[in-house]
Amino acid sequence: MSEPPAPRRIHLILSIFLILTLLLGSLVAISLWQPLLRPQASPVKRPGPFDARIIPGMRVSFITIAMDAQFIESHLGKATLRPHQDSLFYLFPKLGLNISTHKGQVTSILVTNPQYTVGSAPNPQNLIRVGQDVELVLRAFGDTYDAEGDPEAASPGGLGSRYTLHYWNQGIHFGIFQDRVQYILVTSNLLEPSDLPL
């Protein structure tokens, strides 16, 4: 019969086996977690239908949040481009549209053209558009908003004549001047309803 291996040899074999197992386990863990560690770009969305509707958190006409910015000028014509930090603004003053992009994708759409409307009510007077009274906004979207006023125009008990109503969880913001909607800004939904301050 053969003699049992020496304890040193067994210890060396077990040590090598343990090190190889740890290395193999580490490689498997890294390969599984690597896609989660890399920042992922949001999926590029396709254009919406060509209409005059504003859908909060999603789109204005065919311009959708996260849409490829190259599509914009091919359908709206030449824009005035304004870089700002790491974003690029596409300005269409004649159309009443300003579009903000980041890394080639639409991040927000600002509307000053009363042709575009929020809502789908059969009664045209219930559609929210630039120029309408702020009461219509409050009836449609409620009082769960953040208000941001102009500190120079603020009155002692209110926001003053110029302010913005932010409906973060719905992805829509209304610029108000003297109780009239001056602009509508569409963004992605930034907060869950439970995240809003009470």
What does this structure look like?
The protein is an alpha+beta fold and 198 residues long. 23% of the residues lie in helices and 29% in strands. It has two domains: 1-40; 53-195, Pathogenesis-related Protein p14a (3-Layer(aba) Sandwich), CATH 3.40.33. It has helices at residues 7-37, 70-76, 134-141, and strands at 53-55, 59-60, 63-64, 80-84, 87-92, 97-102, 105-111, 117-118, 146-149, 162-167, 172-177, 180-187. The chain has an eight-stranded antiparallel beta sheet with strand order 4-5-6-7-12-11-10-9, covered by helices on one side. Strand 2 (59-60) and strand 3 (63-64) form a beta hairpin. Residues 37-41 have low confidence and may be disordered.
Strands, helices and their partners?
Blueprint: H1 7-37, E1 53-55, E2 59-60, E3 63-64, H2 70-76, E4 80-84, E5 87-92, E6 97-102, E7 105-111, E8 117-118, H3 134-141, E9 146-149, E10 162-167, E11 172-177, E12 180-187
Question: What's the CATH first level of the largest domain?
Answer: Alpha Beta
Spatial strand sequence of the major β-sheet: 4-5-6-7-12-11-10-9
Distance between the termini: 83 Å
Report the sheet-strand fraction.
25-35%
What integer is the average pLDDT? Answer: 82
What keywords describe this structure?
about 200 residues; alpha+beta; Pathogenesis-related Protein p14a
Put the structure in a nutshell.
With 198 residues, the protein is of the alpha+beta class. The chain has helices at 7-37, 70-76, 134-141; strands spanning 53-55, 59-60, 63-64, 80-84, 87-92, 97-102, 105-111, 117-118, 146-149, 162-167, 172-177, 180-187.
